Amino acid sequence: MIRLVGVTKSYTVGDQLVPVLKGIHLEVHPGEFVAVMGPSGSGKSTLMHILGLLDRPTSGDYELNGASVLHLPSNELARLRNQHIGFVFQNFHLIPRMSAVRNVELPMVYAGVPRSKRRARAMELLEMVGMANRAHHLPNELSGGQRQRVAIARALANDPAVLLADEPTGALDQQTGGEILRILQDLHADGRTVMVITHDPRVARAGQRILHMVDGEIVREEVPDEP
Amino acid sequence: MIRLVGVTKSYTVGDQLVPVLKGIHLEVHPGEFVAVMGPSGSGKSTLMHILGLLDRPTSGDYELNGASVLHLPSNELARLRNQHIGFVFQNFHLIPRMSAVRNVELPMVYAGVPRSKRRARAMELLEMVGMANRAHHLPNELSGGQRQRVAIARALANDPAVLLADEPTGALDQQTGGEILRILQDLHADGRTVMVITHDPRVARAGQRILHMVDGEIVREEVPDEP
Ligand SMILES: Nc1ncnc2c1ncn2[C@@H]1O[C@H](COP(=O)(O)OP(=O)(O)OP(=O)(O)O)[C@@H](O)[C@H]1O
Ligand SMILES: Nc1ncnc2c1ncn2[C@@H]1O[C@H](COP(=O)(O)OP(=O)(O)OP(=O)(O)O)[C@@H](O)[C@H]1O
Ligand SMILES: [Mg+2]
Ligand SMILES: [Mg+2]
After folding, report:
1. A91 touches chain B (CB under 8 A)
2. Interface list for A 136-175 with B (CB within 8 A)
3. How many Cα atoms occupy the beta-carbon half-sphere of A29 within 13 Å?
4. Which of A51, B22, B34, B107 could bond B157 through an S-S bridge, CB–CB 3.0 to 4.6 Å?
5. Parallel, antiparallel, or unpaired: how do β-strands B59-64 and B2-13 relate?
6. Left if phi > 0, otherwise alpha if psi is -120 to 50, otherwise beta: which for B32?
């Protein structure tokens, strides 16, 4: 159970205060598939970074299974991030000097998974996203959509209960995007909680709920029709 | 007049030869609006880098207004790139330590434009893409779609005759993407040559021709119906 209560986030740029999240109230139940849509700059990625324990709110609270995460020790936050939450970044954040397969293995390295098991699982995940034949390419030897797919594979490395994906099909053609959507739906069908930021109506409609953000607030909740 | 004759491009990864472009024949006439579509990894960005004089073919020729560019001295190539071709990169390539407005000014610095003129034009371009209120933010203080819009503004800095845009609306919501498409259409209406790689059918339909790439080749040309 993911719960945000009165979450705000502001940044300081020079001497300017830039308010970005202006009071977010949000509940995501275990096993839910939630989509988040909204204009460029409305705060979607900022919200997802807070949910992914990659950033802290300026004010308000974040409860995970009834307990506030804001008071957890940093090693416990790191463990949650590494093993329970898979995060697909909007700009991928692949390690430039590591090949695709080694990028996918990295979360497993942190989790202490043995070498041979890591390699087998990483290749299996790359296979799933159609990237097995580019396993040894560096990120700068991959196309935009290929990097995106490696980032998706990496997010799944430790088989997380929660998947947070920031525009996971943004760099993909219609067909490849459809394949990724099916993967997200399969992960959801297996009981995982999936939250996706997307500009693609087809991905949003796959959700059980669509949260619409404008200017730092959730202004509307939509329940798509059964497909 | 842009002309590619039998262009191939291959890379070496480890001891593997990776053929990426497999014989491209292409003509783009002055003032044309051409869209390029195709699956992730099919060679679109590689093709555009060659067209933008950012990369050289492995074999074949590239003629610009009847003369081969492959034999031009590097300062002449740099001048063409800086003043005649605007390039919007798929992953934006903004300078991390420079603010949005200084990133947009950079091509004008290379072209020797005086300081006050540069600042005025850069702010005007940022205004056009809805980014004037983030002019002094660094790239890491901007959302994904905001970086994309700054990259578009920068490509237009020296008022190029040719605009090459690699998925210019990929990170944008429907509405902002529509605004960018209108900008591309206005630039085209003013007589510029516009070539856009896109996964968005709405952008592709704005073109006078759509080139479909699969596995390193142009397999089909489509003429969209009049809108
Ligand atoms: N580190 C930062 N410092 C200052 N402002 C920031 C910072 N990070 C983000 N912002 C601002 O916060 C706002 C929201 O950014 P965010 O990345 O959450 O938007 P978004 O909804 O994901 O947009 P997009 O659809 O373009 O990805 C933007 O206006 C941005 O300029
Ligand atoms: N420097 C490189 N070294 C090796 N292979 C490369 C290199 N750059 C690109 N490639 C390969 O070339 C192929 C085409 O890449 P390109 O970036 O042109 O694809 P694309 O059509 O733009 O894809 P996308 O829609 O995902 O952006 C890919 O299979 C990629 O792995
Ligand atoms: Mg974002
Ligand atoms: Mg590309």
Report:
1. yes
2. 136-137, 141, 143-146, 148-149, 166-167, 170-175
3. 4
4. B107
5. antiparallel
6. beta
Q: Is B37 in CB contact (< 8 Å) with chain A?
A: yes
Give CA separation, A87 vs A94, A168, B134, B164, in Å.
12, 10, 27, 32
Tokens of B88: 């919007």
Ligand 1 atom at minimal distance to the Cα of residue A48: 18
Tell me how far apart the alpha carbons of residues B101 and B17 are, in angstroms, rounded to a whole number: 41
Residue A146 and residue A131: Cα distance in Å, rounded?
Answer: 7
Q: Give pLDDT tens digits for B200-214.
A: 999 999 999 999 999
A30/A227 Cα distance (integer angstroms): 22
- Ligand 3 ion local residues (Cβ < 5 A): A 45, 90; B 143-144
| pLDDT tens digits for range A25-75 | 999 999 999 999 999 999 999 999 999 999 999 999 999 988 999 989 989
Per the prediction, chain A carries an average pLDDT of 96
| Whether the predicted pLDDT of B187 surpasses 80 | yes
Q: What one-letter code names the amino acid at A155?
A: A
Q: How far is the CA of A15 from the centre of ligand 4 (A)?
A: 38
Cα A28 from Cα A45, distance rounded (Å): 17
Ligand 1, atom 11, residue with closest C-alpha: B142
